[in-house]
């Protein structure tokens, strides 16, 4: 199964997530926002240096349907910003909030990215969520699942949702849960 993290990088919480993953010996896939990658290229390079996979998550993480056809340049610009920060090509992509309507499909084709969604959303983006709730949300994890987590939050429902402490605390417990099921971890691949 795959652990994925969206909306970063965040200078406070991404390093804590990376430390938790390193302690557990697990690689994950990070879908980073272009404007944040441009502000924190050191964190983007650290993600790669530590063996994690990297994908784009748009440039500004727009609200679905808010940009109309402006979504096309946002997706293209996001990929380019992530590639500049990473100093390498980046093909993986996750559309903001997982929304993939007609315009988003055109934008993904224009950006020449390969989209990945998730199979389990533990709703760690909710204000006030606890580590217990995050772990409980993953209780049904099976082989092949892609778990959605957040090392940062874009456009939070409430300011307290930007505190990713519960997600950081949940990482070792999620790893234990997956391993108890006899499963291992993979990063998301790019099709050949």
Task: Give the topology, please.
Layout: E1 2-6, H1 13-24, E2 29-32, H2 34-39, H3 41-49, E3 53-56, H4 71-86, E4 92-93, H5 102-111, E5 114-115, E6 120-121, H6 131-137, E7 146-150, H7 165-180
Parallel strand pairs: 1-2, 1-7, 2-3, 3-4, 4-5, 6-7
Helix pairs in contact: 1-7, 3-4, 4-5, 6-7
Task: Give a structural overview.
This protein is of the alpha/beta class. The chain contains seven helices and seven strands; from the N terminus they run βαβααβαβαββαβα. The protein has helices at residues 13-24, 34-39, 41-49, 71-86, 102-111, 131-137, 165-180; strands at residues 2-6, 29-32, 53-56, 92-93, 114-115, 120-121, 146-150. It has a seven-stranded parallel β-sheet with strand order 5-4-3-2-1-7-6. The mean pLDDT is 95.
Give a short overview.
The chain is of the alpha/beta class. 40% of the residues lie in helices and 12% in strands.
Unreliable runs:
none
Read across the widest sheet, the strand sequence of neighbours is 5-4-3-2-1-7-6
Strand content: 5-15%
Provide a count of the helices: 7
- Cα separation of the termini: 20 Å
Cα radius of gyration in angstroms = 15 Å
Which terms would index this structure?
alpha/beta; 7 strands; globular
């Amino acid at each position: 199964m795959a652990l994925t993290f969206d909306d970063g990088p965040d200078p406070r919480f991404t390093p804590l997530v990376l430390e938790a993953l390193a302690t557990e010996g697990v690689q994950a896939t990070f879908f980073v926002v272009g404007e944040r990658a441009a502000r924190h290229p050191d964190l983007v390079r650290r993600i790669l240096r530590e063996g994690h996979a990297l994908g784009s998550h748009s440039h500004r993480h727009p609200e679905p349907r808010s940009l109309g056809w402006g979504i096309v340049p946002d997706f293209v610009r996001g990929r380019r910003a992530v590639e500049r920060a990473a100093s390498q090509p980046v093909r993986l992509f996750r559309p903001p909030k997982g929304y993939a309507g007609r315009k988003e499909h055109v934008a993904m084709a224009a950006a020449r990215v390969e989209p990945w969604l998730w199979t389990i959303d533990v709703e760690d983006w909710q204000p006030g969520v606890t580590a217990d709730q995050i772990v409980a949300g993953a209780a049904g994890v099976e082989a092949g699942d892609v778990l959605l987590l957040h090392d940062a939050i874009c456009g939070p429902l409430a300011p307290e949702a930007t505190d990713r402490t519960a997600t950081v605390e949940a990482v070792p417990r999620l790893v234990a849960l997956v391993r108890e099921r006899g499963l291992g971890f993979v990063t998301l691949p790019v099709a050949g």
